[in-house]
Amino acid sequence: MLRLASSLLLISTTLVLAAIESGPAVDSALPELKADAVTGDDAGKKITFTTTRKGKPTVYVFIRSDKFDRPIARYLKVLDKALAELGKDTHIVAVWITDDADKTREYLPKVQQSMKFEAATLALYAEDKLGPNAWVLNDRAHVTTIVTDGVKVKARFAEQSLNETNVPEVTAALKPLLK
Q1: What is the structure's pLDDT at 18?
Q2: pLDDT tens column, 19-45
Q3: How deeply is 168 buried, as exposed, middle or buried, from its count of CB atoms within 10 A (0-12, 13-18, 19+)?
Q4: Cβ proximity of 58 and 93 under 8 Å
Q5: Is residue 80 within 8 Å of residue 119, measured between CB atoms?
Q6: DSSP one-letter string for 93-157
């Protein structure tokens, strides 16, 4: 009986530790997001993305620049393809949280050239290594994805490890916003 109780405690502790809270609460107003656009029509400008995307379905993906790897790249590519197919002015704003703006500014156009995103803008945020304060990003999350209708947070996902298999849950949260 003691072993069973210990095992259950270990499992529940592991599950609690695995869950990462990151990003604004669901149904909360979308906080302002100013970041440096590195690709897209506004490349080279500091943009208030939440103003330019107001009222439009948008997926914000915050990436810890030192954690970016091939599985995260596959996640972005498949998510981009899914949003391009959905159309209806859906868009991804992928924001690298970095402490080396110059290096990231040089790197992101190479990512765009390699991945050929159609429905994504790559941006960087270097003002605080934790990311924009109002977005309450957890530094344990390598990637935080926020699904919005352009005004409110509709879903959020925070992962230490992810790949293209995580895309269906994001698109499932986005589809009701397109009706």
Answers
A1: 56
A2: 799 999 999 999 999 999 999 999 999
A3: exposed
A4: yes
A5: yes
A6: EEEEE-S-HHHHHHHHHHHHHHH--SSEEEEEE-S-TT--GGG---TT-SEEEEEESSSBEEEEE
* CA 11/CA 32 separation, integer angstroms: 38
Structure tokens belonging to residue 83: 């949003």
Using CA atoms, how far residue 123 sits from 24, 45, 65, 103, in Å, is 19, 10, 11, 13
Quick one: how far is CA 136 from the chain centroid? 13
- For the chain, domains (ranges, CATH) are 21-178 (3.40.30.10)
Which two structure tokens, joined as six digits, stand for 76? 């972005």
pTM of the model: 0.89
Q: Interhelix angle for 101-115 vs 70-86, to 10°? A: 60
Say how far residue 173 (Cα) sits from the centre of its chain: 14
Per DSSP bridges, beta strands 46-48 and 91-97 are unpaired
Residue-wise pLDDT for 149-165, tens only, equals 999 999 999 999 999 99
Query: Can you tell me the distance from the alpha carbon of 125 to that of 131, in angstroms, rounded to the nearest whole number?
Result: 7
How many whole angstroms separate alpha carbon 135 and alpha carbon 33?
Answer: 8
